[in-house]
Each structure stands twice: as structure tokens, then as C-alpha cells.
Design brief:
Helices cover about 15% and strands about 45% of the residues. The protein is of the alpha+beta class and about 190 residues long. The chain has 2 domains: about 30 residues; about 150 residues, Jelly Rolls, CATH 2.60.120. A hairpin with a 4-residue loop joins strand 3 and strand 4. About 15% of the residues have low confidence.
Length: about 190
């Protein structure tokens, strides 16, 4: 009789442990508490501006080649966190810009979505512009800045129903007083 009771007790302990483990596993895989981020060097330069791009694998940054001016654009696909949903309410953009606010030297980032069924084509979810939005400078005065914008209503990124990407743009009017560099994008 004792052997049967011990066996029942072990079974109950193992069953409870399995339930706890499976609920933790379900929570971790369905909630997607982890954020998404990408270095700017991981983004794809658009063909029409690619000849102006300088990229550093060592630091993960992108910027203008030599004395090039104008605008350069990149597509940064949002992926890599598995299936299901990721709820985000903020987009952070990290960049170097010693020029500060203004249109002569700036970085832009637009979080975009397009449904798999093509009913939406590039719907804007959030737009960041360093000449408009505030950014926090690095206390060490390196010129590194982090700008953030809230996403209204917390976007539920659902890779099962839509494509998502960030359109990243670097803009400079003069190479003599402006050297903007894109570092990365972070969705949280």
C-alpha cells in the first residue's frame, strides 16, 4: 500500500511541475516580452542612394561616404522574434549628430506596416524626425543621441498578418559641418 501511495505522490508532484513549466513556457512564447532592435548597418540601402553610403561593420553604423550630401535611405525589416505578436509602444532611434536640431543635418525613421492581403500599403505607424523630436545627448559629449517617439495605442506587431519595416533616412546639406551617422533602431 505504501508503494502505491508514494507512486501517486510522485505522480502528483511531477504533474504539478509539468503544469507550472508548461504555463511558463506558454507565457514566454506568447507574450514576446523581448524588444526588437537592429543596427543601422543591418538595414538594406535603397538602390537609388546606395552609392552615397558608408557602412561600418565594426561599429554597426551607416553614414555618408566622403563628401556626399543629400539623402540616403534604408529599409530595415522587422523580424526575428518568432511568430505571433509583439506589442510595442515606443520606437527609439540612436544616432550621431553633432549639429543638433535643424533640417541641415538630421535622421528620420518611419515604422511602417503592410497587410499580407495587400489592403494596406505602407501604413505609417510612427514617424521620428531628429529636427523635430527631442533626443537625449550622450553625457560624455560624443555626439551620440537617442531619440524616442511614442507609438499611439501600442501597436501589436503581428507577423502572421502583416509585414513590418522601418524606413530609415539620413539627410545632410553640407559635409563641412555635418556628419550624421545612424546607429540603430529599437522597438519596445
Amino acid at each position: 500500500m505504501r508503494t502505491i501511495n508514494r507512486g501517486k505522490k510522485r505522480f502528483k508532484v511531477m504533474a504539478v511541475g509539468a503544469l507550472v513549466f508548461s504555463s511558463l513556457l506558454y507565457t514566454a512564447t506568447s507574450a514576446h516580452a523581448a524588444d526588437w532592435s537592429m543596427t543601422a548597418a543591418g538595414c538594406v540601402p535603397q538602390a537609388e542612394t546606395a552609392q552615397k553610403v558608408s557602412s561600418s561593420a565594426a561599429s554597426g553604423t551607416v553614414g555618408f561616404r566622403g563628401v556626399e550630401t543629400g539623402s540616403i535611405f534604408f529599409t530595415c525589416p522587422v523580424s526575428g522574434f518568432g511568430g505571433g505578436r509583439l506589442s510595442v509602444n515606443r520606437m527609439r532611434v540612436t544616432f550621431y549628430d553633432g549639429f543638433g536640431k535643424g533640417d541641415r543635418c538630421k535622421i528620420t525613421a518611419n515604422l511602417l506596416r503592410s497587410n499580407l492581403d495587400e489592403h494596406e500599403r505602407g501604413l505609417d505607424i510612427a514617424d521620428f524626425d531628429s529636427s523635430i523630436h527631442s533626443s537625449d545627448p550622450d553625457p560624455a559629449s560624443t555626439g551620440r543621441r537617442v531619440g524616442a517617439i511614442n507609438i499611439p495605442g501600442a501597436e501589436a506587431i503581428d507577423l502572421d498578418t502583416s509585414y513590418y519595416w522601418v524606413a530609415l533616412g539620413l539627410h545632410r546639406a553640407s559635409s563641412s559641418d555635418c556628419n550624421v551617422l545612424g546607429v540603430g533602431i529599437h522597438l519596445e
